[in-house]
Amino acid sequence: MRRYLTLLIALLVLLIVGCKPKEEVKRLEPSQSVAMQSVKYSEEALEQGLRDTLDFGKMRQGEIIAKKLEVKNEGQRPMVMLRHVTTCGCVSVLYDRKPVAPGKSAVIEFELDSKSLQGWQMKLMEFYFADKGTPMKIYIEAEVE
Length: 145
Description:
- By secondary structure, the chain is α/β, with parallel strands linked by helices.
- It is built from two helices and eight strands, in the order αβαβββββββ.
């Protein structure tokens, strides 16, 4: 009986010690910002399979890197990005959904959070436009150490 009581007390102590209050999740700022690339949008380019790769290079696990992509509208009509689809929750995407007139540009901001990643990574984002069903494909490539 004494053995069970000692075991019960030990388990209670471990339970109390192990239950620390959860720390607030803080939004981390990017540790590195990479130069902006650009891609040229047009109806013809989209029909032919508009795609580009953003190389985030080598990064340490837990690091967040931000990168911007300029999309130049070289088409004849306004360009409107309606939505995007990503293959990983580790990529945050921010862009304006306002129409971009011909000859003007829009900027898409990307953040790659490598907290749960290891090794070579390739992530895909697809951007859908108002007048086309074919998406623009943007790949993110990184080596997480």
